[in-house]
């Protein structure tokens, strides 16, 4: 008997050792090396952060604020006109080699023709408009938001992070290259949308312009991520390159029940049914999927740079998957990375406090993960509420019919390799990671003209400064200006000289 127990314990120990061995081996061999994505970058002209700071300061003082679709309204175009005139006079060498087109009145396109017109061009994008300042927060800024103040090593102002620094450093890069006599082989296009924050009609018109001319882009580069310091998965500075962005749909829940006087209420009135539906949707979130890009790409490409325990968990999802999912789901931003999010935003019911409504409504906004679609979101909602009486779900048409998530751009091509190398160079040897962009950018319109769409700017952003995005105290460090101009120049030359 004792011998049997001894054998049994021996077997258990053996199994445990095998399990540990499997976990460790899987951990050690997990993911791909970042070095595969590094290439030697071309040399580019020198840039001066102080000079760029002056130019950035100048355009930050132009309040190109958009509030609603259709902006700028007639009579309010002044800042947009001043901005494009400023770009004409400040960058003479580039203007001498490039042709400028205006589309949708205020969206600026520059085309710098390459020597080999049989090659598909590249397109670099930024947007001219900015969001307003939240009322009552002006005094929480270290410097006023529309004064272009440079102090303590930072440029302050609405638009520094989103997105005028990209706009100005793309121009600096193009100007320096043109002034140095550089001649691209592959054509370079630049597009500065005028209304990204409200509708993106300018970028849409820009894409129409390219389609009318049968122009496809070898690469599109727009805003999205930066070199983020520290990136949560690696715990250190990492170049984050957006390879996809989420879609958007709002579902209207309609709850119908007997209305009437609140003195004789039935059980399960319209508002109660509606509440049940909202609670059910909150409890049954859309599923997460780590097995497909962009998540699978993101995880495997930073595996080598993860702390051991994190890497072990990802390498052994068969064992640790529930734990990983809980960790991601615990934080709003990381939860949004892994699934389509569910956000009940508007509710309306009765118009009087003593009247029961016959119909009540809720709007639930979903940000669609590339794993899902408008159709699967609607099917999920209908499934979740199927056993709740009186509630129906439809796509809400008031904000448009919704937009699908973007396709996922590849990471096994020259464009990605160039961006990963520029990120590494700009960040002092940091790894690069492909990721999902949680908001919408103007690049969403370009899926018709390119398969290789990336969302990244070669600046280093401390994670705290990300709060400036549409928030208070938006700023960018002065040393980023030289870094970004150099990065954009490297991208132009590496992509356009072959
Ligand atoms: Zn933006």
Description:
With 498 residues, the protein is of the alpha+beta class. The protein has 3 domains: 49-245 and 405-496, 3-Layer(aba) Sandwich (Aminopeptidase), CATH 3.40.630; 247-285 and 342-401, Alpha-Beta Plaits (2-Layer Sandwich), CATH 3.30.70; 288-338, no CATH class. The chain has helices at residues 2-28, 49-60, 78-90, 92-97, 160-179, 201-212, 270-283, 295-302, 308-315, 317-329, 332-338, 374-384, 414-426, 479-496; strands at residues 99-103, 107-112, 122-127, 150-151, 154-156, 188-193, 219-231, 236-245, 247-256, 260-261, 341-348, 355-356, 359-368, 391-395, 432-437, 453-462, 475-477. Strands 1, 2, 3, 6, 7, 8, 15 and 16 form an 8-stranded mixed beta sheet that branches. The protein has a 4-stranded antiparallel beta sheet with strand order 11-13-9-14. Strand 4 and strand 5 (154-156) form a beta hairpin. Helix 2 (49-60) crosses helix 5 and helix 13 (414-426) packs antiparallel against helix 14. It is globular and about 80 Å long. The termini are far apart. The chain binds zinc ion (ZN). Zinc ion (ZN) is lined by residues 127, 162-163, 196, 223.
